[in-house]
Amino acid sequence: xxxxGREVVLGVTGGIAAYKAAEVVSRLRKQGANVHVIMTKSAxxxxxxxxxxxxxxxxxxxxxxxRRAPWEVEHISLAQRAEVFVIAPAxxxxxxxxxxxxxxxxxxxxxxxTKAPVLVAPAMNTGMWTADATQHNMEVLRSxxxxxxxxxxxxxxxxxxxxxxxxEPQEIVAAVENILNPKLDMAGLKVMVTAxxxxxxxxxxxxxxxxxxxxxxxxxxxxxKNRGAQVTVVAGATTAxxxxxxxxxxxxxxxxxxxxxxxxxxxxxxxxxxxxxxDYRFSVxxxxxxxxxxxxxxxxxxxxxxxxxxxxxxxxxxxxxxxGFAAETENLMENAARKLDKKNLDMIVANDVSRPGAGFNVDxxxxxxxxxxxxxxxxxxxxxxxxxxxxxxxxxxxK
Length: 399
Description:
This protein is an alpha/beta fold. The chain contains 13 helices and 19 strands. The strands form 5 sheets. An 8-stranded mixed sheet has the order 12-11-8-13-16-17-18-19, with helices on both faces. The protein has a 5-stranded parallel sheet with strand order 2-1-3-4-5, with helices on both faces. The two termini are 27 Å apart.
């Protein structure tokens, strides 16, 4: 029992996915965890407290003013007892309250008081999940260290098909296990990750770039760090929050990226190139801002940039594992397979950036992990989840 004796507090909020929380409790108990359930008033409209009391073998807390244990302030007691605090399902309303620090019921009050790691499993209608307000709240929560599992995509109770489906109970329990018993299976490995977009200057105020935010590269770097690796990130322009506990080297152009990566490559065990380098640069870079030409057209010449991944592949050492990315809009697998061979990679992460929920500047991705032995399909999921899948596959390749 991998969670024997560990203290888990589970908050259940008012969504149809509340019924799946019962299986979360059951699975946690089978792993040996001691589970304490807090339910909101709305959650009790979907599932009765007796269900969770039976499964957890503990009283279910529903009322801030319940005086069954008058000798202790119960929300403080549970907040202090928790080794991990899970909200499943986490409704849009609960996520908003958490982001704003609102404490108006037993669950939100206990959450605000806890110092334990917090894991949320969002569950809601697709429109609610993709709403600007919800996504802003998620950014706030992530910036505070709240961990997220899901949501997945599929057929929703409202009849819609899309993102918003609560992760399956086994995924939530696996996330809890990872928090309480973190895998250190990359301890001793030196990992370099590239992230973000490069910029090619035309003049001091103008440049050519792309939409990469750095979210995928940063997610991989953070996951590798959490698994015990010594991580170096070579990053171009990014909008995502930088991961803590890693060494970050900032660059601007593709040639800068080439220099930074090739200088550090020989000492690395794993190199994962998630950056989006510009394939071309301006043939002439002006020292001063270019002025308008009284309506006359300007012709700008582009020249090809060096291929960073190919350069790293050429200098590959025995025992190194090289991973590249193929961001495509057509002929995905053909192009990815060609890059796998041409650039001497061990694995390539292929994704069609034209698909909704995949590619640049979003929190989710859809990918295929292609190696010379086969491929692994990764359906729509959070980039943090995909990062773990990529690292799992890297370790398989290194066996």
